Amino acid sequence: MSDLENLKRQAAELAVEKVRSGMVVGLGTGSTAVYAVRRLGALLAEGGLTDVVGIPTSEMTAREAEQWAVPLGTLDDYPIIDLAIDGADEIDPDLNLIKGLGGALLREKIVTAAAQTFIVVADERKRVERLGTQSPVPVEVIPFARRPVAAYLASLGAKVVERQSNGRPFVTDEGNILLDCHFAALPEPADTAALIKARPGVVEHGLFLGMAMEAIIAGAAGVVTLKRTRSLK
Ligand code: A5P
User: Fold this and answer.
1) Contact (CB, 8 A) for 58 and 30
2) Mutate to test the pocket of ligand 1, among 9, 10, 29 (most ligand atoms within 8 A of CB)
3) Cβ contact 194:95 at 8 Å
4) Is 76 left (phi over 0), alpha (psi -120 to 50) or beta?
5) Is the CB of residue 32 less than 8 Å from the CB of residue 87?
6) Ligand 1: centre distance to CA 217 (Å)
7) Strand, coil or helix: what is 97?
8) Protein residues whose CB sits closer than 6 Å to any atom of ligand 1
9) In a 10 Å sphere around its CB, with 0-12 CB exposed, 13-18 middle and 19+ buried, how is residue 22 labelled?
10) Where do the H-state alpha helices sit in the chain?
């Protein structure tokens, strides 16, 4: 396993230490969150945990969880999640995030919003001083609204790029497209988030503001745990 994969694994596995038997756990999507799913599966298999139910944030994660025999449920059955564990593309000092480069931001945000606690796990490359410095803001859009919404997002100052997969528009688990919005700067992420969300045709965006309670970030020099001290909510 490469050093980077090891860092992702360390962060994800530390978050899984907070899972207790009987919990409903939000299972994130991406190359970091996958290690949490695998660790949960291993703990369930060896009896270190029992009666855990996972709520997957994507079809991909659901398949991974099935492979590791993590029992799955739905939000219909479990509308309140005890703990969600997920990765991120950017994490600022107040634990505001950009998520969605893995394409699952809508279900991720729904699961996170239903969670009593959300822990974000990442390697140190994801830490930024200001959101928007190394990642675009993905915006999930109903296909019917593609062009007017793209023009609207451009009017907010973004360079808008429709996400592609194998030469065709990327389609999310909910049947929508993603417009990746590259902003030169995001001085007021909450204002930008509100403006994006206000436009009909936009389903959700990848700005997760005031949602993460804790970040577990693994780096070459060790693991740091950050707790949110200030809320934008
Ligand atoms: C999935 O849609 C994303 O929000 C991921 O959580 C995010 O892209 C982090 O993924 P990695 O852990 O693969 O970097």
Assistant:
1) no
2) 29
3) no
4) alpha
5) yes
6) 14
7) strand
8) 28-33, 86-89, 99-105, 108
9) exposed
10) 3-16, 33-46, 59-67, 105-113, 146-155, 189-197
For 7-28, what is each residue's pLDDT tens digit? 999 999 999 999 999 999 999 9
Paired tokens of 110: 């729904």
DSSP state of 145: G
Residues marked active site are found at 108
Residue 196 has which token pair? 């994006």
| Distance separating alpha carbons of residues 29 and 138, to the nearest angstrom | 15
Q: Which atom, in ligand 1's list, is nearest to the CA of 105?
A: 2
Alpha carbon distance 116, 114 (integer Å)? 7
- For 99-153, the pLDDT digits (tens) are 999 999 999 999 999 999 999 999 999 999 999 999 999 999 999 999 999 999 9
Q: What share of the chain is helix, strand, coil (3-state, %, to 5)?
A: 30, 30, 40
